[in-house]
DNA sequence: ATTTGATATCAGCACGAGATGATGTAATCA
DNA sequence: TGATTACATCATCTCGTGCTGATATCAAAT
């Protein structure tokens, strides 16, 4: 799921959504990317549970799911913790 | 830098290194990937400061840098925190 | 000194992911 | 109803990135 955070445009979308829910047109305007492109990325983020879509009339608001980001963060923190704990246990060749 | 954690093979390398420092041959053996491939990935991880190389004779031990992972984790946690704080401030269309 | 083994580097290729244009759908407004 | 707006989906193309084979380097072993 961290894989999704790698793409620059997706990272920008997530950063924008961190400032509060926004609809597709906002993201298109702010990023300068074409609308189908944004929609494609939003679909991936939605499928991964990183964002949720909230239809409001003909607008679709997208909202970040903090828990998903925290799960990813926890994964990285755990790797760091394990690395520290086993830092003095190199494998033998 | 999170970009580097996206690739599956690099993620596997990092997971292996979280169990303690290991040399290239270990990673080649454990992942089943070809040696030049592993070396290429290690180079990228090294350039990004995610791992450090420690030459021991003709072996090269690689060690995870926990601080780098924690920095990435902190970035994600911060995004989650901001998203929570501004969750009820949707932009107007 | 020669060989062997571990690793790094380089050039070329192949494949997949992102970008785009065209089109479809649904909701609002005239 | 027809027109317009916001968004989603589809087909296609391009281009970057990872993978590989060949080769170079350097250290230990013989």
UniProtKB/TrEMBL annotation, chains A, B:
Span of domain HTH arsR-type: 1-91
Signal peptide range in chain numbering: none
UniProt key word Cytoplasm: no
InterPro entries on file: ArsR-like_HTH (IPR011991), HTH_ArsR_DNA-bd_dom (IPR001845), HTH_MetalResp_TranReg (IPR051081), WH-like_DNA-bd_sf (IPR036388), WH_DNA-bd_sf (IPR036390)
GO molecular function, one term: DNA binding
Keyword terms, alphabetized: DNA-binding, Transcription, Transcription regulation
Cited PROSITE patterns: HTH_ARSR_2
Record's protein name: Transcriptional regulator
Organism: Micromonospora deserti
